[in-house]
């Protein structure tokens, strides 16, 4: 990772759900492995941690192996991933990952997903019991076992789940919305009405790719995946704008952010924080770079 020890860290003091952050740039869940980065870049990496808060990848109750390969497909200006949320499960996360993530120099947000309200309640209650976890993000891009629709695609289904989950924690509860729905602002309004402290969007857009060869076979082991990166930025900006106009709770905006100017556009659209996802695969220090560029832009327009 590029080191810039002589340059002061970016400073755009930001308050989000009671958390005091150095700047408004965080990571998108599942797109930055802080534990692997520390192993590769060493402990000095912690002094230049690229994000103002760290969002864990999605944790589920049981261990998940993820989808069969191939898991990635490059598209013009983006990629489709069909990783399938592999993770150690709640017990593995609490035992192995949490102690390491708790030592990061920024607040920890743990992202969880379940396919029933009962599963989500158990995950959220377990996170609530951990002092190191400062906020909980619900990934609601998961099919409801009763309807088969993603919980977050349907405001009624999401409201039902949140009525059970909200009382399980006093920590800030962020609902990470799916863009794969008819009216994302309606879903955001349902989340707000049921006590969400913030919403985050966009998750990836459902997409697929055919294998080279012309016989129409799907390339991805999981058949469909989620599209991310610059190709989805305009869609994300439209959805963040619509949601920020609809709800009074803070919004975390993401989708294809690569530069400070993109982050500024999401903030102008009404986001309080922005998240960087796919860009971190190209540039692991993208969070710091984007925050610096944003700070320069804000200074010019002040
Ligand atoms: C490889 C990969 C893994 C992801 N894993 C998760 C995840 O575990 N949980 C989640 O809520 N979102 C996950 N996402 C979605 C991102 O957090 C983000 O919402 C999305 O990629 C849009 O931002 P971007 O265009 O900057 O990547 C993942 C995205 C990618 C590309």
Automatic annotation (TrEMBL):
Necessary cofactors: FMN
- Where in the cell is the protein located? Cytoplasm
Q: Does the keyword Flavoprotein apply?
A: yes
Q: Gene3D superfamilies recorded for this chain? A: Aldolase class I (3.20.20.70)
Q: What Gene Ontology terms for biological process does this UniProt record contain? A: 'de novo' pyrimidine nucleobase biosynthetic process; 'de novo' UMP biosynthetic process
Chief location category:
cytoplasm
List the catalytic residues.
142 (nucleophile)
The EC number of this protein is 1.3.-.-
Residue limits of the Dihydroorotate dehydrogenase catalytic domain?
13-298
Instruction: Give the Gene Ontology MF terms in alphabetical order.
Output: dihydroorotate dehydrogenase activity
Q: Does Flavoprotein show up as a keyword for this record? A: yes
Which of this chain's residues are annotated to bind substrate?
57, 81-85, 139, 203-204
- Pfam families from the xrefs? DHO_dh
Which reaction(s) does the protein catalyse, per the Swiss-Prot or TrEMBL entry?
(S)-dihydroorotate + A = orotate + AH2
Would you identify the family this protein belongs to, as annotated?
Belongs to the dihydroorotate dehydrogenase family. Type 1 subfamily.
User: What does the function comment of this entry state?
Assistant: Catalyzes the conversion of dihydroorotate to orotate.
Write down what this protein is called: Dihydroorotate dehydrogenase
Q: What is the organism of origin for this protein?
A: Paraconexibacter sp. AEG42_29
